[in-house]
Backbone:
């Protein structure tokens, strides 16, 4: 059996391009990157799993000449899982676009702040030591909802002023 | 059997405790106390047998492959500790019936106290080291939970207690592992009945050291003592039970238990005696320095545990008997003192001896009980504390190995006991003595509140003269702890002995210290000892900083930085593998100029994809390479995979286009600064993958499993499409779990799609009903055909290329096309029957149901079976399973289409309008949106948009 340099090159190109795109901040690019990368890995897996052969349909060829069905089943599974991953990434990109007007993954500033507080052993501003029944965030959310008008939807983070501006633009 | 009933009953009681608490309020604690009393009676019935030397055992295999059993053994040592745990438990829970209020009684405290009693009994009865360790950790966790109920003030002390005792638990675990390595057995009985097996191993020393560390943390010995006074923030019953009478004795128990192995080893004796006596002395000094009554008692516990550890360390039968007797005595008088101090605290709101005075005049009975217990603590004859202290002195006098060791040890013990008497007197006198009454208007607590403390105080008084009643227990325990040694009898009067003289000295000096208490106080207050808690906190903070430094690389902000590390790891692994694989065998390299053309083409396509700023171009180019790969798969004989990939690419493209309709088509520019490192990482990863393809190709022929599958697929299942047979029959569970993942993603999409609409999805786009005639007509023609094709592919999947995955993708593409076309095209709106939640749920039920049916007939999960009637039509169980797969994957496709359809660019406007028409609709209503609702909204939006135009 001979390794086809062509396939080595294909795996290289697919994975390299996939990684290049995955390391981007735009979720659309990340998405396509994941698809390319998974295609590359699937090719690698099938190439490494044995020689090509006839389709694994009993009766259509000699079993000895057939391709190995087991890796194929695994790759098939991997493709469907990648589909799920793609769909989820896509949904995130979509929501990100809906909420923030772009689909870029930002550095998690909030996470950094939380970490800083943990190091300094501080509690967050919304922590209420008198009432430990429910997670504080939830309750403050409720409180905000109770006072929010006309609807909590307007309260999506960092959204208020922009929305209002937009309404003005739309006009009557 | 009795032991299983005992433990099971206690656990059941703990489980029932919150319910009882809710139903009965604090009276429920009396029921719990009754339950513990019943347990005590059960154990009492076993006493004669155990004392006669017949251990009660129960054992069942737990982890047979490791030789670990859930083994219990009630011998003399365990009996003493079990009785202490249960009797004090009865008293403390009865005390809870008045100390707690109704809400607290319904809370976690009583339940965890009972659970703790079970864990403590399990700990001392465990005849397997692993079980012992598990129970040890359960007591730690119970302690932490109980301390934490004190709320915010308990945060720092609770953490300290947990960290210290868990560290000790880890030492114990390590000791257990080493014992298993050295002796090959986890049985406690085997360990203690044949000490030479461990002692002959070089691991004996490390095991002993680890056992001492574990015991020292649990029993609050120097330098780990600081957690115990800190744990006093817990409520009084908890302090009385866990942090005075029982849990802290677990360390002593461990030392007693391992005495059979280590007693008499000079290092063991030297370490334990010096550790224990130092702790005893330091603890006593610190106790005398305290003004908080609970603080006094906490340091007193530290000090008394020090005496116990030292006595166990001496290792002679006399010393061990003394330690066991003093364990009982200490549990009784310390629990009493805590409960009575708790009453004072409860009634006056203060525990500071400087605030309290003269309470004996309003609470004579409480004062009397406290006095008895304090005198017992101080070792005043003829109380139980006196007797046990006499024996401790006697034990220390026998201390070896050097001739001077005994006298020095007993001298330190006398000094510690002198201080003990002084602070014991201070506890009783501080609160109840004095002329003026600090808190007028108080009265005696209710009888039930006082009774537990009073009963224990009475026991201290009676069991002193009647100590011979305890003699059989102590003898049995001593001979169980030191097999083969003569156990001494215990009784009150020994005549005039050295230890009696020492007791006299102790009493005289202690009385002197008490009389001159003001002077003593001035001296002690002038001295400020270094704070052990602060030292702990410093160490703890340092450890956290170390963790921060170690973990810093993992905290890079942003996804690319995180991913880059993983990718670099991939490259490193690949490089290592390249070195490990060694030189490549000589192989022919096939060269095909035409194929190279394809590669060049693909590379160009991909380079363009990487650089383009148009999202549509990106999607199109990415999809193109997918199609190329699919063609290669087809040529390679992987028919099912090729079809699946083809359909996945089509579906992805259609859904992406659905989404991108509402998004800007321009992608952000890649910053030039980042491009180079990113490209380098990409190239390195690509090289790793390509290198793997090069290195791994041609190394294996058809796998054995593959050959077997090819040979047996048809005889076993009747299917001729082997890939599909593998999916639905041979690896059915794998497939099932995978489709579960797909179903979860589908539900996640549904939830994501329901969130607030937020800002509009883009500039007012074209009308959602597309103008594209070709697409509309094409879809109307194609969609029914695709449904038929999907059904056909499903049906033939077992024998020909096809199957559930492929059929689902065909149907999903039909749905997506319908959405894209809009208007009156089929599937332009998701039919109710195709709601993702319905598909996912139905698919799960069908797939799981098919898998479970064979179990009814005694077969294996997912085994194929014949369907009545349908079987004749060629419908097999595999086909039904494949239908489940189809439904789940279709659920994903429909969920993606449904929740990502951006063809409604005015989703935000729809919300606004809804708000305007239904201003009172609140967040709950929004959250409750189901798909049907969403559809109506869709319809309304379409109408609105049309109207505006």
Residues:
């Amino acid at each position: 059996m001979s390794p086809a340099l062509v396939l080595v090159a294909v795996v290289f190109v697919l994975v390299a391009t996939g990684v290049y795109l995955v390391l981007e901040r735009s979720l659309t690019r990340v998405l396509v990157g994941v698809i390319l990368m998974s295609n590359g890995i699937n090719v690698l897996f099938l190439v490494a799993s044995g020689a090509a052969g006839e389709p694994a349909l009993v009766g259509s060829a000699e079993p000895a000449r057939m391709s190995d069905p087991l890796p194929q089943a695994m790759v098939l599974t991997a493709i469907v899982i990648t589909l799920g991953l793609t769909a989820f990434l896509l949904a995130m990109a979509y929501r990100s676009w809906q909420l923030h007007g772009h689909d870029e993954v930002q550095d998690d500033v909030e996470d950094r702040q939380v970490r800083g507080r943990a190091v300094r052993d501080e509690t967050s501003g919304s922590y209420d030591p008198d009432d430990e029944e429910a997670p504080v965030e939830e309750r403050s959310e409720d409180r905000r909802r109770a006072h929010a008008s006309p609807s909590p939807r307007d309260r999506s983070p960092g959204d208020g002023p922009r929305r209002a501006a937009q309404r003005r633009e739309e006009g009557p | 059997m009795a032991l299983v009933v005992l433990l099971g009953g206690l656990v059941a009681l703990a489980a029932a405790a919150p319910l009882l608490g809710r139903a009965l309020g604090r009276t429920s604690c009396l029921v719990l106390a009754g339950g513990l009393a019943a347990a005590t009676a059960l154990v009492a019935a076993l006493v004669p047998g155990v004392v006669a030397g017949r251990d009660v055992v129960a054992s069942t295999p737990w982890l047979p492959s490791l030789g670990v059993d859930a083994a219990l053994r009630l011998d003399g040592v365990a009996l003493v500790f079990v009785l202490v745990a249960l009797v004090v438990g009865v008293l403390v829970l009865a005390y809870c019936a008045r100390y707690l209020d109704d809400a607290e009684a319904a809370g976690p405290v009583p339940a965890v106290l009972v659970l703790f009693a079970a864990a403590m009994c399990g700990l001392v009865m465990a005849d397997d080291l692993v079980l012992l360790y598990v129970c040890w950790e359960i007591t730690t966790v119970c302690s932490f939970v109980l301390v934490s109920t004190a709320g915010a003030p308990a945060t720092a002390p609770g953490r300290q207690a947990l960290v210290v005792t868990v560290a000790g638990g880890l030492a114990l675990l390590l000791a257990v592992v080493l014992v298993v390595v050295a002796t090959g057995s986890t049985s406690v009985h085997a360990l203690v009945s044949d000490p030479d097996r461990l002692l002959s191993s070089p691991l004996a020393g490390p095991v002993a050291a680890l056992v001492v560390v574990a015991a020292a943390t649990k029993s609050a010995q120097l330098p780990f003592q600081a957690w115990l006074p800190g744990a006093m923030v817990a409520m009084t019953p908890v302090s009385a039970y866990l942090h005075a009478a029982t849990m802290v004795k677990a360390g002593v128990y461990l030392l007693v238990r391992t005495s059979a192995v280590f007693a008499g080893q000079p290092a063991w004796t030297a370490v334990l005696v010096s550790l224990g006596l130092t702790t005893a002395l330091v603890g006593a000094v610190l106790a005398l320095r305290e003004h908080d009554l609970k603080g006094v008692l906490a340091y007193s516990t530290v000090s008394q545990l020090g005496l116990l550890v030292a006595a166990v360390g001496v290792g002679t039968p006399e010393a061990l008997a003394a330690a066991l007797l003093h364990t009982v005595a200490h549990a009784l008088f310390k629990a009493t003192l805590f409960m009575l101090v708790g009453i004072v605290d409860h009634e006056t709101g203060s525990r500071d001896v400087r605030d309290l005075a003269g309470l004996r005049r309003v609470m004579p009975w409480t004062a009397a009980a406290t006095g008895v217990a304090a005198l017992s603590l101080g070792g005043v004859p003829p109380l139980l504390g006196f007797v046990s202290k006499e024996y401790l002195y006697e034990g220390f006098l026998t201390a070896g190995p050097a001739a001077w060791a005994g006298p020095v040890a007993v001298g330190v013990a006398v000094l510690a006991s002198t201080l003990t008497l002084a602070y014991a007197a201070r506890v009783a006198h501080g609160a109840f003595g004095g002329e003026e009454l600090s808190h007028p208007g108080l009265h005696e607590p209710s009888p039930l509140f006082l009774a537990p403390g009073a009963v224990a105080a009475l026991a201290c008084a009676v069991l002193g003269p009647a100590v011979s009643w305890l003699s059989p227990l102590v003898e049995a325990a001593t001979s169980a702890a030191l097999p083969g040694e003569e156990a001494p009898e215990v009784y009150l009067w020994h005549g005039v002995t050295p230890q009696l003289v020492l007791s006299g000295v102790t009493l005289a000096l202690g009385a002197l210290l008490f009389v001159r208490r003001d002077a003593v106080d001035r001296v002690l207050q002038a001295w400020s000892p270094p704070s052990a808690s602060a030292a702990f906190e410093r160490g703890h903070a340092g450890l956290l900083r170390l963790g921060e430094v170690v973990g810093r690389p993992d905290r890079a902000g942003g996804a690319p930085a995180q991913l880059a590390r993983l990718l670099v790891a991939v490259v490193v692994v690949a490089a290592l593998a390249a070195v490990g694989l060694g030189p490549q065998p000589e192989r022919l390299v096939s060269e095909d100029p035409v194929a190279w053309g394809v590669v060049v083409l693909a590379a160009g396509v991909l380079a363009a994809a990487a650089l383009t700023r148009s999202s549509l171009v990106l999607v199109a180019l990415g999809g193109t390479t997918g199609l190329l790969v699919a063609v290669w798969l087809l040529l390679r004989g992987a028919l099912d995979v090729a079809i699946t990939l083809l359909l996945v690419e089509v579906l992805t493209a259609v859904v992406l286009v659905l989404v991108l309709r509402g998004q800007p088509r321009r992608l952000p520019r890649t910053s030039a600064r980042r491009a180079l490192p990113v490209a380098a990482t990409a190239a390195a990863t690509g090289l790793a993958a390509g290198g793997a393809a090069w290195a791994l190709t041609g190394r294996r022929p058809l796998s054995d499993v593959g050959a077997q599958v090819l040979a047996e697929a048809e005889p076993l299942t009747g299917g001729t499409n082997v890939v599909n047979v593998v999916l639905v029959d041979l690896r059915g569970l794998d497939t099932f779990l995978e489709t579960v993942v797909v179903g979860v993603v589908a539900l996640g999409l549904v939830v994501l799609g329901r969130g607030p609409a937020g800002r509009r999805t883009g500039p007012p786009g074209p009308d959602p009903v597309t103008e594209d005639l070709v697409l509309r007509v094409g879809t109307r023609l194609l969609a029914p055909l695709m449904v038929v094709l999907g059904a056909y592919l499903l049906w033939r999947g077992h024998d020909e290329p096809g199957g559930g995955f492929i059929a689902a993708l065909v149907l999903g593409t039909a749905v997506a096309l319908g959405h894209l076309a809009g208007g009156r095209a089929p599937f332009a709106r998701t039919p109710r029957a195709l709601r993702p939640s319905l598909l996912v749920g139905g698919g799960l039920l069908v797939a799981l149901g098919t898998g479970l049916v064979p179990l009814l007939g005694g077969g294996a999960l997912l085994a194929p079976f014949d369907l009545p009637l349908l079987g004749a039509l060629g419908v097999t169980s595999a086909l039904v399973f494949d239908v489940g797969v189809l439904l789940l994957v279709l659920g994903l496709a429909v969920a993606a289409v449904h929740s990502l359809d951006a063809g409604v660019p005015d989703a935000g406007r729809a919300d606004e309008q809804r708000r305007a028409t239904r201003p009172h609709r609140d967040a709950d209503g929004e959250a409750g949106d189901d798909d049907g609702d969403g559809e109506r909204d869709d319809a309304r939006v379409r109408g609105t948009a049309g109207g505006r135009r």
In short: The longest strand of chain B covers residues 56-63. Chain B has 39 helices and two strands. Confidence is low (pLDDT under 50) at residues 758-767, 903-949 of chain B. Chain B touches chain A through 134 residues (CB under 8 Å).
